[in-house]
Amino acid sequence: MKIHAPRRTYIRVPRDDVYGFAKFLFEEKECRLSIATGIDKRDGMEIIYHFSHDPSGTYYSIKTLVPKDDLKIKSLADFLPAANWIEREIHELLGIDFVGHPNLIPLLTAETWPGDLHPLRRDYADEHKDLKVEKSTEER
């Protein structure tokens, strides 16, 4: 745990414990999910769930590392509706599979975008700089 500022605390949690810890913050401590962040680090994909405890003005950020050879983590969307869209965005842009998520369909990229290409990965720019994506005339 690292207290970054008087009302900002970062807590590193193993991937398998994120679901239970997030549920504790939401249900027991009455925190709300503000946003989540996905970051491609050299040693894995980092996910940070940012929770706010509004009465005290305190933020708790749960950080976890998902190994690049096993890009899976349990979705929080079943008990935390606010996680639904941001998990979809992180899935689409970084390729992390949120296990149990009700609807991981693309949200930001064109419907003709290849599903195995994730534009926020470190290796994306070099490997796919010549990619051409067809324009779609259909609405989602």
From TrEMBL:
InterPro entries xrefs: NADH_quin_OxRdtase_su_C/D-like (IPR037232), NADH_UbQ_OxRdtase_30kDa_su (IPR001268)
GO molecular function terms attached to this record: NADH dehydrogenase (ubiquinone) activity
SUPFAM superfamilies on file: Nqo5-like
A Pfam family hit: Complex1_30kDa
Chain segments annotated as transmembrane: none
Ranges of residues in domain NADH:ubiquinone oxidoreductase 30kDa subunit: 11-125
Family stated for the protein in its record: Belongs to the complex I 30 kDa subunit family.
Protein name stated in the entry: NADH:ubiquinone oxidoreductase 30kDa subunit domain-containing protein
Organism for this UniProt entry: candidate division WOR_3 bacterium SM23_42
